Amino acid sequence: MKGTYIFLADGFEISEALTTVNMLRRGGVNVKTVSIYDDRIVTSSNRIPVIADMAFGEFKASTSFGPCLKTDVMIFPGGMPGSSNLAAFGKLMDIMMQHHAEGGTLAAICAAPSVVLGLLPDLSGKKMTCYDGFEDALIAKGAEYVKEGVVVDGNMITGRGPGWAVEFGLAILTHIKGQEVADKVKAGLML
Fold first, then answer.
1. Which pLDDT tens digit goes with each residue over 17-31?
2. C-alpha to C-alpha distance for 3 and 29, rounded to whole angstroms
3. Residues near 172 by Cβ (< 8 Å), separated by ≥ 6?
4. Sign (positive/negative) of CA torsion 46, 87, 25, 191?
5. From CA 150, how far away is CA 123, in angstroms rounded?
6. Would you say residue 67 has pLDDT above 90?
7. For residues 125 and 52, what is the distance between their CA atoms, to the nearest angstrom?
8. Cβ(119)–Cβ(87) under 8 Å?
9. Do the beta carbons of residue 144 and residue 127 sit within 8 Å?
10. How far apart (Å, rounded) are the C-alpha atoms in residues 163 and 186?
């Protein structure tokens, strides 16, 4: 899968999703929000409706699939039941498995590292973080749980929760565009 996409399902954590999109777009990344439904409207865990850039069918029809680079990123915000809804959507999980196998990057925050990325067959040796209380699923798959705000390990970027959304977005931006671009965005935010 070519490009950078953030996937939204009903019950997603709005601050994790939109803050990440904000950081990436400030840095010049053409990130697209994708509803996993036939409709572009997705409702956050706090009952705030958001209009995604595209519905899932539009994503499938307009996205180039095949060999990808580490700068091609699939992003999964947390929130419940948003993370569970993402994980239950088999068509998306099939794409995630293929994307990961081809060396594309996966980024997930809050519950999503465990609930979504935890569906990968093997996380052996990967350093990962997640929302407190969700770490057992990662450990069971062989990951090394690290209680930090954001953890980058190769082509996997994980964040702990909503309070780390800015840093999570900046970590993805650094991964795609480099530290200099991320530093410029950070300076513009007065961080």
1. 999 999 999 999 999
2. 9
3. 4, 20, 23, 24, 29, 73, 75, 105, 107, 157
4. positive
5. 17
6. no
7. 34
8. yes
9. yes
10. 16
**How do 41-43 and 32-35 pair as beta strands?**
unpaired
* pLDDT tens digits, one per residue of 108-125: 999 999 999 999 999 999
pLDDT range class, residue 88, cuts 50, 70, 90? very high
How far is CA 149 from its chain centroid?
15
Rounded Cα distance, 95 and 102, in Å: 11
Q: Which helix (H) or strand (E) holds 110?
A: none
Please give the Cα distance from 80 to 120 (Å, whole number). Answer: 19
Q: How confident is the model at residue 51 (pLDDT cuts 50, 70, 90)?
A: very high
How remote is the C-alpha of 31 from its chain's centroid? 11
Sign of CA dihedral 128, 134, 140, 146: positive
Nearest to 55 by CA among 91, 96, 80, 14: 91
Percentage helix, strand, coil for the chain under 3-state DSSP, each rounded to 5: 40, 20, 40
126: Cα separation from own chain's centroid: 16
